[in-house]
Amino acid sequence: MGNDSDANKEKEKDSKGKRKVTIATKDSYTRVTTISNTTDKPNTQTKPTMEDIPQSPIQNPQVHNIHTTVDNKIVDGKYVRTETQVEEARKEDMKQHVEAIKQ
């Protein structure tokens, strides 16, 4: 048991003048794009007008979602097709290191 207490004293001696530093970063990004087309005839354009190309400025996100919704309405006798795209990206990082205390 004497060896354990000696080892602890040695660690305390070495750890004096040092501190543990933790750096936590959280990045998040959300982009909402809405495109509306108005025509006189229904089903004029049936293919999507938006591209599903991710444009997140976060490098290597842990979460990256793209959700597109389409809404068709008749407004004042015209057919309105509205596409809404929501893109979300998130990344969290935590780094720890020990450094000397600056005096």
UniProtKB/TrEMBL annotation:
The source's superkingdom equals Eukaryota
* Name of the featured protein: Uncharacterized protein
* Gene of this entry: Necator_chrI.g612
